[in-house]
């Protein structure tokens, strides 16, 4: 009987990034990349086709993001094991990834071997989380905005992410296959839960919570 491999699906909207991850993972015996996807919708189709042991997924993708994709995958297969591999060190992203059903969270600034060990841990049913994110989550417990933002559902958080990225109601509706009225209702609910009265206040909340990065102005 042949040796059991950990089958992996890579989900990232950058082909060059996926190729780098593939080379890193497949240098290790016992790991095989069996599928790739560049969007949440493609990830869902490829998961149903290949049934990988572990999904390595970025949370920042155009349109429907990785957190909503995790929810969608786990609605179809409650046993799906997802490892988030992302640039976001912000504790809010990590908390929502785990709420959506992720089993691990590693930042792209982590040492390469940490991604490999995280894949192995998640495949074995263990939780994997990099030290920086552990520290960020611990510190976030001391911040008022962190507790407020946790009132949002994973879907509301994803829509908030697009609102803060200045996406229009039409763009958000298309990304999630929702009606304009439903998006407007989400928009209202998000502002109510975050206790803000306008989109300007919503942007200020995003800046305070680290979901929006201040624009860097170069000096002449």
Description:
Helix 4 (91-100) crosses helix 6 and helix 9 packs across helix 10. The protein has helices spanning 15-26, 40-50, 66-76, 91-100, 112-123, 131-140, 144-149, 154-164, 169-176, 180-194, 199-209, and strands at residues 6-11, 31-37, 54-57, 82-86, 104-107, 128-129. It folds into two domains: 6-139, 3-Layer(aba) Sandwich (Rossmann fold), CATH 3.40.50.2300; 144-209, Orthogonal Bundle (Arc Repressor Mutant, subunit A), CATH 1.10.10. It is α/β, with parallel strands linked by helices and 220 residues long. The N and C termini lie far apart (67 Å). The radius of gyration is 18 Å and the shape is globular. The protein has a six-stranded parallel sheet, with helices on both faces. The mean pLDDT is 88. Helix 3 (66-76) links the parallel strand 3 (54-57) and strand 4 (82-86).
The average pLDDT value, as a whole number, equals 88
Q: What is the molecular shape?
A: globular
Strand portion, in percent?
5-15%
CATH-level-4 superfamily name of the largest domain: Response regulator
SSE order: EHEHEHEHEHEHHHHHH
The first-to-last residue Cα distance is 67 Å
Radius of gyration: 18 Å
The poorly predicted ranges are none
* Count of extended strands: 6
Q: Give me the secondary-structure category.
A: alpha/beta
**For the record, what CATH class of the largest domain applies?**
Alpha Beta
Topology-level CATH name of the largest domain = Rossmann fold
Helix count, per DSSP? 11
Describe the main β-sheet briefly. 6 strands, parallel
Helix content: 40-55%
Strand order of the largest sheet: 2-1-3-4-5-6
Name the CATH architecture of the largest domain. Answer: 3-Layer(aba) Sandwich
Number of domains: 2
């Amino acid at each position: 009987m042949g040796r059991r491999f950990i089958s992996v699906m890579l989900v990232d909207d950058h082909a060059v990034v996926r190729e780098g991850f593939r080379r890193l993972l497949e240098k290790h015996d016992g790991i095989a990349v069996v599928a790739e996807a560049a969007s949440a919708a493609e990830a869902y189709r490829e998961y149903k086709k290949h049934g990988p042991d572990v999904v390595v997924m970025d949370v920042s993708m155009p349109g429907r993001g990785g957190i909503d994709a995790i929810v969608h995958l786990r609605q179809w297969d409650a046993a799906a094991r997802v490892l988030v591999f992302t640039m976001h060190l912000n504790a809010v992203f990590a908390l929502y990834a785990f709420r959506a059903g992720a089993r691990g969270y590693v930042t792209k600034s982590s040492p390469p071997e940490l991604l490999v060990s995280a894949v192995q841990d998640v495949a074995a049913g263990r939780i994997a989380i990099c030290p920086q994110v552990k520290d960020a989550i611990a510190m976030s417990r001391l911040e008022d905005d962190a507790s407020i933002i946790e009132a949002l559902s994973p879907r509301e958080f994803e829509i908030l992410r697009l609102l803060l990225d200045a996406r229009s109601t039409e763009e958000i509706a298309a990304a999630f296959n929702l009606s304009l009225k439903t998006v407007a209702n989400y928009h209202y609910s998000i502002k109510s839960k975050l206790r803000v009265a306008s989109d300007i206040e919503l942007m200020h909340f995003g800046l305070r919570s680290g979901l929006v990065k201040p624009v860097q102005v170069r000096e002449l």
